Amino acid sequence: MRCRRRRPAIAHVRYTVHMSSEQTTQRQRLTAQTLERMRDGIRKRAEAIGRDHERRFADVGRMVAQNRQARGMSQQELAILCGTTQSAIARLERGGRPPKLDTLMRIADALDAELLLEMRLRDASTE
User: Fold this and answer.
1) How far apart (Å, rounded) are the C-alpha atoms in residues 18 and 26?
2) Does 122 map to a domain?
3) Do 56 and 93 belong together in one domain?
4) Which end of the chain is less crowded, N or C, counting CB atoms within 10 A of the terminal residue's CB?
5) Are residues 33 and 60 in the same domain?
6) CA 76 to CA 81: how far, in whole Å?
7) 41-88: per-residue pLDDT in tens?
8) 1: in domain
9) What is the pLDDT of residue 110?
10) pTM
């Protein structure tokens, strides 16, 4: 005797497919809304900080340039030692681009310098 599997009713299949696609759409909508809220939060924090980051990038660039010049190196020589291009070193020294940590580590290595990174909590009054 064969046991035949019973197929679900057509209405059940349609309802299930419809419901699952609605849930997927809702999930995508929630994800898009969450991402948008996150982007807004990041944008607002960036605006609140203002030009402070740009000043810090310029300070880092100046430090790199000063240390490079103290070693008597050209941008091209430093770039070769770091595995990057002269134009990337120039951009970093101008403060035109936020430096990546791994790039700074390679630069410090090439300059035989120590890279110090410090993170401090802000005072509650400055937030």
Assistant:
1) 12
2) no
3) yes
4) N
5) no
6) 9
7) 877 776 766 567 778 888 999 999 999 999 999 999 999 999 999 999
8) no
9) 95
10) 0.57
Question: For residue 96, what are the domain limits?
Answer: 52-110
> Residue 19: its pLDDT value, please?
52
| Digit-coded pLDDT (tens) for 85-113 | 999 999 999 987 788 899 999 999 999 99
Phi, psi of 110 (to 5 degrees): -65, -35
Burial of 77 (0-12, 13-18, 19+ CB in 10 A): middle
Task: Please state the domain count of the chain.
Answer: 2
Task: Kindly state whether residues 31 and 69 are assigned to the same domain.
Answer: no
Q: Which residue has the tokens 């002269």?
A: 86
C-alpha span between 58 and 30 (Å, rounded): 39
Residues with Cβ < 8 Å from 95, sequence gap 6 or more? 54, 57, 58, 59, 60, 61, 62
